[in-house]
Each structure stands twice: as structure tokens, then as C-alpha cells.
Amino acid sequence: MKYSTAARRACAFALLVCVPQVAGVAQAQPDSTTWYVSAAAGPGGTGTPDAPFDTLAAVEAASRPGDTIVVQPVPTTVRALDGGIALKPGQQLIGGGPEVIGAAADAALPRITNSTGDHDGDAVRLATGAQVRNLVIDGARRGGIYGDDAADAVITGNRVSATNQNCADGFMIGPFGLPPTIVAGLATDPMPDFITLNNGWAAIMTDFSTATGGVRIDGNIVHDTACGDGIDIRAHGSSRVTARVNGNTTRDINLGLAKLSVLAMGLQAGDDAQLTAELVGNSQFDIAPPSSPLNALADSEGVFINPLGRARVEVRVDRDEFRDGHGNFSANGLEYVTTSGTPESRVTVTDSTFDNVSGDVIENYNLSTGGARQSLTLDKVRARHSSFPGAVLNPPVPANLGTCLVNTNFGRTAHTDLTVTDSEFGDCSADGIGLVSYTPTGSGPATAELVFDIRDSSITGTAANGIAVINVGDTAVVRGSITRTDISGAGRSLISTRNSGGNARPILEFGPGTLDGVARDCLATADPRVDLSAIPGICRP
């Protein structure tokens, strides 16, 4: 029985077992050819197992769409295959020999690189329906694996390191603006978008502009990047993308020369794109480590999610583990930020841990001055330990300086909501949870909304406030509820409020909980460490 190219793509992406596949053994499709290439081969090979090609260029030229290409393992004393390879639609590029993930350092493995300018310096260039599996990719001039509108590509079980030796720009964040007068509690006209952060090209990156389809990135290890990000997915134009990013490890991800930001894992959607993503069982360790002096300047991120334009974004993050994010005061474990435009987005994070970072551990930032709608749900999430001494500048600077979880709404017509259940926050150098609404001045009534619901959670051991609620400007709706939550060990107030909102009438509802170890029927109690003078609280059963 023969499979069409489209059927083979569908089988690969849907994880259906169309033919047996094991590491080190290439199973060719019935209507395809399997080719072999080896860095240890002599010249004149024909692409067979016994007479493999000796260059990636030779096997690229000989192969057809739908073919399988096997990179044979070689000892560490043999130089990797160089020059990169551009795959054709439906091709499989597979490393022979043992699985590279977990292999001994001195094992014979299938190794490739690209130290040249061919294929823009990428070691592997994807095509529609292509698969890349079980390779060691080290020292590429630009990306390890890159795809442009390569719908339904599958990238599994690879080890990618030391990429972007040429320090090319990749993921761009912004432009966006920040309200400087929030320090004084004054609302002004919207600031122009003037801040842009550049990142180095990612080790694994896929771009989409017109394609409709998916991408699957599973079980890879990305480490010790030379200048840039770990794994990035960008959807722009009219693209419709479904991404499955599961079981990957990124570690020792490094900022490069003349770069401002570095991401272990980044998602971005702009223009009219639609991006649906599932991120399950991934880990990010030692982002912007201090072993490189440049990393002290890094705005580093573990997981970064960035809607903009008119995009529609839905992301689910489950069982993520982040640990040790270094860099400057703006480093984060998870940052979900709308930078501009009117996108609609929703992010749900479950059963995940974010530990030890310089800046805010988790950020939910709606920075767009337009009508962007942004929603974050955290369930069974642990966010602990920030190190930047943000309490020194808090409350005048209420965000970006070491809060466990900060949630902001900065647009005059924007909507931001936050739901927190069964989660843990603590040992942070500013607030435990900061909830900030800043509504700039403008004609006509504001429709901005900041809504939050915090339940069955704990906030302990913070240098500033346990929970801080701040409103600046004539926000239409500031509404929140806090119930069945333990708040203790704050350096200042357990609950703090600030309102310089003109006609704004924030509403806070409180249920039962614990304050410094004492059970209360209502958290809005007469306690000197609960400051509701600016925004009154209502007790609800």
C-alpha cells in the first residue's frame, strides 16, 4: 500500500504510526527512497548504506520530496557534516545510531552543523511536512532548525547547541510604551510606542505568514546558545497555526552582543494571525547564566507569550518547570504581554513551577493602549523567589521589580482578567501579587477593565505587600475577589490599596481566609496590616 505525500504528513503530525520507526533505523515510505550521508565517507558515494554521500549538499541534490535522509553516526574525532541542508516537502531527516538524547559524550552520533553562509547559516531548513529527528546540531552560524511557512513540520528528539554564532537578530519584541507617571499616580495621554527589544536567532524557530497547519516540537534539548533564544514560534500575516511543544528542555540560554532580550521559549502572533499552542512538560533552566558577563544585561524570560496586532491567541501551559532566570530587573519566569494593537488572547497555566528569577516571577501585562483583551488563568502554580530589591522602590514603582505575580491593564479601552486558584506565591523581593490598572487620559468615557479572582491560594514571605491593588485614572471597572487565601509574612501591608482614579469606583470582595496565621471570616477585617482606605472592601460569604 502506498501513501500520498499528504497522507504521510498527516500521519507524522497526528502521531499515528503509519510505519514502524525507531532511532537509528530509517523506515522509508513505499513510494520514497532512503538516502545515506556520513561525515566519515569517502568521495564518490552513491547514497547507499555502504557507500553514503560525504556531504549534505550531495544528498540534498539527489533527494526528492518525500524521501528519507539518514545521517550516519560518526566518532567525536570526525568533524560534523557542514554546510546545512534545505529539506523538500515531506522529507524525513533522521539521525542513525542510538538516541542522541541521553547518549554519552564520547558516543558516535549523527552530527551536523553549518559554519557557512549557505541556507543563511541554518543547519536545517524545514519544508512543509518535513521531519527532523535524532540529530546533534552544534555551532550553526545562525539557526539549528528553521522553518518559514513549513506547515506540519515535526522536530523531535534532537540535541541543539551553540547556535547563532553570527549573532543575527531573530524574535523582536515591540515597539511598546510604558506610563512614566504611574510613579506619581497621575494619568496622562498615552505614551508613544518607543521601546523595542531584540533577541538573537533561536536554536529552533518556525515562522508563519500565510500557511495553515501545525508544528510539533517534542523531546528536544537546546542548550548553551551562543547568541540567542532556545525555541521560538512566530505567527504573522494571515497564518493559522496549531503548535504542540512538549517535553523539551532549554538550559544555559545566552544573550548575545548588542541584544537586549533572551527567551528560553517564545511565542508571538501578530497581524491577523491565529495561534493555538499547547506547551506540556517543558523545562527552562539557567536562563542568562552569570557565566557570561553579557547576561547581566539580559531581559531574560523562561516562557514568553506575545500577542499583538489583531491576532487571536490561545495557549495552554501544563507541567512546566522553570528554575534560575538571571539578568536584569526585568527578567521573568513567565511573561504574557500584549505590546500593541487589539489582539484577543487567553493563556491557561496548570501544575507548573517558576522558581528563582531576578524580576517579577510571573507577569500578565496588557500594555496596549488600544482595546486588547487578555486573560490569564493560573491553577496549581507555584511562583517563588525573586531577587531584585524591588521593595526599596515599591510602591512608587509597583511592577517589574520582583513581584511574585504582577497583573496590569494599561489601555483606555483594554480588558485584562486574572484567575488564580490553588496556587502558591512567596519569598519575593516586592509584592506577592500586584494588580495594577493605569488608564491614560482621553476623550470620551473609558471602558478599561481590570478583573481578578484569587481563591484557595497562599501568599507568604514577601518584602513589600502580600496583595497590592492600584488604580490610576478613570478606569471603568476595577473588580476583584479574594477568598480562602492565606496571606502572611509581608514586610509591609498584608493587603494594600491605592486609588487615584477620579470617578473610578473600584470594587473588592473578600471571603474567609488567613492573615498571619489567624483565621478570619472575612479578609477585609479591622487589622492594621490590611489597608483598604483607598479602595473599600465588601465581605461576601
Task: Write the topology of this structure.
Elements: H1 5-13, E1 34-37, H2 56-62, E2 68-71, E3 85-86, E4 92-95, E5 111-112, E6 124-125, E7 131-133, E8 136-138, E9 145-148, E10 153-156, E11 159-161, E12 169-176, E13 195-200, E14 204-208, E15 212-218, E16 221-223, E17 231-235, E18 240-246, E19 249-253, E20 261-269, E21 274-280, E22 283-287, E23 299-307, E24 312-318, E25 321-325, E26 332-338, E27 344-357, E28 362-366, E29 373-386, E30 405-409, E31 415-421, E32 424-426, E33 433-438, E34 449-455, E35 458-460, E36 467-472, E37 477-483, E38 485-488, E39 495-500, E40 507-510, E41 513-515, E42 518-520, E43 530-531, E44 537-539
Parallel strand pairs: 1-2, 2-4, 3-6, 4-7, 5-8, 6-9, 7-10, 8-11, 9-14, 10-15, 11-16, 14-17, 15-18, 16-19, 17-20, 18-21, 19-22, 20-23, 21-24, 22-25, 23-26, 24-27, 25-27, 26-28, 27-29, 28-30, 29-31, 29-32, 30-33, 31-34, 32-35, 33-36, 34-37, 35-38, 36-39, 37-40, 38-41, 39-43, 40-44
Antiparallel strand pairs: 12-13, 41-42
Task: Provide the low-confidence segments as ranges.
Answer: 1-12, 14-30
Helix content: under 10%
Structure summary, number of beta strands: 44
SS-based class: mainly beta
End-to-end CA span: 66 Å
- Helix tally equals 2
From the alpha-carbon coordinates, what is the Rg to the nearest angstrom?
25 Å
Key terms:
disordered N terminus, mainly beta, single chain, 2 helices, elongated, 44 strands
